[in-house]
Amino acid sequence: MRRFDIRRRGRQQRAVLSGALAALPAGLMAALAAELAAEAGAYFPAVYALTLALCLAGTALLARRGLPLVLAPDLGTACWLIYLIVISHGVTLPLLYACLAAAAALVWLLLRCGAAGRALSAFPPCLRAALPLSLGLLLFLWGAEQGRLLLASPLHLVMLGDFADPLAYFTLLGLLALLGLRALRLPPLAAVLGAFLVTALLSLAEGFWIVPPAPFYLPEGLDRAAGLFLRAGEGEVAALTGAAAAFPWLVAVLLLTSWGTIAALFPRLGRGDGAASGGVSAASEKAGLRGVLAALVAVNVLAALAGVLPLMASRLSALAGREGARRPRAFACGACAIFALLLFAAPLARELVSFPAALALLALAAGLSLLRRARLPRLRLVEERAAVLSLVLIVPLTYDIALGLSLSLIAYVLLRQLARRPVPFATRGLAALFVLLAVFAAWIF
After folding, report:
1. In the chain, what are the domain boundaries?
2. Which intervals of the chain form a coiled coil (predicted)?
3. What is the pLDDT of residue 225?
4. Is 252 helix (H, G, I), strand (E, B) or coil?
5. Where are the alpha helices (DSSP H) in 40-165?
């Protein structure tokens, strides 16, 4: 008979809890993405339910590959698609989903034949090493902005929020509680959970968000979202032109955003050597970069066919910690349980999004976790320093990983050529492709 080990059971419970904490903001982002799609004419309950169902399936699929990752809609990509492509340029939702399905299928083929892997390996080591730092700053600034600790300023880049604002007050209270619990030498997961509960319960007690009278209902109208791409040919010729112009950027965004997030969370896996960062299970060491990205892109093909905006590896998966990394399946169990609960709780999710102090706190905690783990090599050359500085500035300020990677690579290649140092052919070709894409987008849009 197997002997009961209380320490092993405690580690499994911490892994499950870390998965639940990482999945909660991902579920709330699903509600935000569904509201964005609803602004373009989609049916909110159907898009919300299908988004969470695919997040659940994708999280379980990546856990089988040994990675503690939670899938969630990328809000920056979703805003770009809805506001610029659909609303501004008149591309219909069915046509957008058809383009997304085709772009994801093309990325999958490029990954399977090895072309995309060779392109990603063309990024210099200094940029790959700077990804965790840039992503950590992105999460921290995004959490501070969502919690109104930082505000846009007409005179400066940002300014401190007004702490008479209840949202800023409760976010700051949660951050101080998190730092105080860590100062008391509580484990990171316990400190995050304690600060999250303090923020959520105090804001609930003060009435800044409420539990709706009917917090749960069954998903409905799934047929109004799934298969929407079949009506792609109903748009005008101008809509087809806008969709064709956006297609190359869809391919670049799907590939670079997925790779950039995974490379930041698991640096050794991001280098393509087939091993994940320290503490990740042996199964993930066998799951190479190409296989992980192919699985993620395959989920996005299904998402486009189901009428869902693109899903990426959630940056708040940084909350997984060491226990979640060592036990990805236990981590996925906690995440899938939260997704299954939120699947029937759209009114509750909308209410939580209306006062996002607890969500902002989790983003701040994930950002601090990534910043603590970031390690930069010694940068001896000017082009390396300029490229890393570009990446670390552009990604947090624009919330766009693909844009930061492309501009920093162009700067690296230009400065290295000016210094008459050798540049690999693949790196030069990738930088030239980014320049052509930028010129094409400026000409079309």
Report:
1. 7-213+226-444
2. none
3. 67
4. helix
5. 44-64, 75-79, 93-113, 115-120, 125-146
